[in-house]
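ZP: hey, is the magnesium ion complex queued? I don't see it on the tracker
AM: it wasn't, my bad. submitting now with these inputs:
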Amino acid sequence: MTRLSSDQPLLNCNVLRSDQGWSCIATDKFALSYDTRDCHNSLIGRDMKSSDLFVKALEAEGVEYIFGIPGEENLDFLDSLSRSRITLVLTRHEQAAGFMAATYGRLTGKAGVCLSTLGPGATNFVTAAAYAQLGGMPMLMITGQKPVKTSKQGQFQIVDIVAMMEPLTKYTRQLVSGANIPSRVREAFRLAQEEKPGAVHLELPEDIAAEATEECVISASNVRRPTAEVKSVQAAVERIQKATHPLLLVGAGANRKMTCNMLRRFIDTFGIPFVTTQMGKGVVDERHPLFLGNAALSSGDFVHRAIESADLIINVGHDVVEKPPFFMQVDGVEVIHINFFTAAVDPVYFPQVEVVGDIANSIWQIGEVLQKQDHWDFTRCMHVKEHGESHLLEGADDDRFPVYPQRLVTDVRSAVEGEGIIALDNGVYKIWFARNYKAHVPNSVLLDNALATMGAGLPSAMAAKLVHPERSVTAICGDGGFMMNSQELETAVRLKLHLVVIILRDNAYGMIKWKQANMGLPAFGLDYGNPDFVRYAESYGAQGHRVNSTAELLPRLKKCHAETAVHVIEVPVDYSDNDRILNHEIQQRSVKV
Ligand SMILES: Cc1ncc(C[n+]2csc(CCOP(=O)(O)OP(=O)(O)O)c2C)c(N)n1
Ligand SMILES: [Mg+2]
């Protein structure tokens, strides 16, 4: 072993296995180099505890942040982290840490990492695990545990977290020896990040964290996603050429990887119109002349008239976890499923042809062979689009106060410039934003149409800002959803994030009120009071704003986007027309088109 210019403790070296054997990556503090073959018995093993090795393994995976709340069972891990380049983002609730980690994963494709203690900390991860798992967001949860080899505290705080995580993750393991850490961590990242991405979990018991180890980190292999088989491409091409009214549907999977350029080219070349699912928004700019609309509602909207007119749906990146954008029927429209993985069959989804492999590559392969057909006819689709677009404009300039949802969407769209991101919580406004807000770039509308949990709006916006500090980020929350993780305002202020947080105040769980009305039930059990959101925000050191007239909204949004701070804007909303428009008017008018 050759050692250069350092007599620092050896455990600060990042060790990676390379093609040549073993190598050491110099950290900021150290410049080390050594013969790679003898790391096992000299450099690494000496004085290294397993939590150090764990942190090295995370560094080797490129982890930048760990979100969470340590407990006493994580203290060795925390100590190792203190000597790492990974930034610890301390949150005020584990659920929020999980939402942040998942969103980091959603935006980067690399697993976001979150940390909690055993028992109560770990159980707080449950909703975030489901959010990541259903939403296809790569995330690693690390939880502590009491010593597993000896225990002096009976069953105090002990819950079988590994078993609890079983239905919520792709992989959940307790680490029972330092020797397993490199392979377990690599396996966790491999599975979290591989299509379809999701949640994974590793439990690091206190005694294992402290145990000495001589292991080395295993770095990721050089691997590429498989591409579609040529016969499946041919089958798709034949069907598309034979169809008279083909239609493209773009879903969540297309937003996870770089598919936008290929899809845009495909649409421009062949002139086939497209529809987006809620989580497919922005893959192709929704201002495109061939964009027919977003399937925010499952049925009965203008966009569904276009879908009904199709005799073939080319379904790109959609899977059944997302609320269905349309329902398949026996002897109904045919579907070509283009995704990274085969279709999970469901009573409303049973495609006839599947093109499985990297989506961008599949679209490219199809585009190479496909011939534009004279018999393709999109007249009906374009007619429906015209009516749909004109309905979208209704209410867009309505200046009633409290603010009308359609006007809110218009003003938010005007205030969000460039590649700005909006992160939505869950409430009735999500439908309005999915339907009326035109996304310009991929992953610029972060909404959850899979678990559809409340409480993720603010944490996901915070993570988006950490990932993209150069882009504007706006969280849009109902007064219900905001209060589920409002404590994270402190974290946002501490991190000095420039964020705009809109709270839509209707003093109620408005979404459920809307459904209650739709079922013809009397209003009951869904109203509440609220704090003074301006003073509430200010008590955290954020800037609090209240909009007192609709005319104030847009200038206020623009000002908040211009001034660096955590801005919280209370916007009273008028939901009185939701039932009439979303449940009745849209259906009645679209059916006449
Ligand atoms: C964690 C969680 N609890 C309950 C629900 C069911 N739910 C969906 S939307 C909603 C009401 C949302 O209220 P709010 O955030 O105020 O938004 P609004 O619809 O009033 O604009 C509820 C209770 C949910 N999706 N997630
Ligand atoms: Mg509400």
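AM: back. Residues 1-44 form one domain.
ZP: great, adding it to the tracker
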